[in-house]
Specification:
Elements (H helix, E strand, L loop, with lengths): L16 E6 L2 E8 L2 E6 L13 E7 L7 E10 L6 E3 L16 E2 L13 E4 L2 E4 L7
Antiparallel strand pairs: 1-2, 2-3, 3-7, 4-5, 5-6, 8-9
Length: about 130
């Protein structure tokens, strides 16, 4: 599987997302509490732009008559018909065993060292650097 650089860590702060093109696919990259996840930007229901939906939490299992809210920032709701998916697994909240959105592995790697073109001219090694305007 090939890796694609989609940005710097600081471009996607916790609680946010960035929608990018990866090998011709629209993919949403999410930062959930400092961990990155990526989902295909297509709801399996009718192909809506899933990653443009609201990111929120959900109610958790609790006692009868009690409503406990949690998992803030881990659930995305499709903007077309309201289907909800777990950003961390790609599975729907309604039927997680059967319905899910395509997930992709995300890694955070150190940026590459900045490089410059080098030529040899008349026995001299020349490093080419763009001029910085003052």
């Amino acid at each position: 599987m090939a890796g694609y650089v989609v940005g710097r860590v600081g471009e996607i702060p916790p609680g946010s997302r960035k929608i990018v093109d990866v090998a011709g696919r629209s993919v949403g990259v999410f930062n959930v509490g400092g961990t990155f996840y990526a989902l295909r930007n297509a709801c399996p229901h009718q192909g809506g732009p899933l990653c443009l939906g609201r990111i929120r939490g959900t109610t958790l299992p609790s006692a009868p008559g009690e409503y406990v809210y949690g998992r803030e920032g881990e659930i995305i709701r499709c903007p077309w018909h309201g289907w909800e998916f777990d950003v961390t697994t790609g599975r729907t909240l309604v039927d997680p065993a059967r319905v899910r959105v395509r997930r992709y592995e995300v890694t955070v790697e150190p940026p590459p060292a900045e490089t410059y073109p080098v030529t040899v001219e008349d026995g001299l090694v020349v490093v080419h650097v763009e001029r910085v305007s003052a």
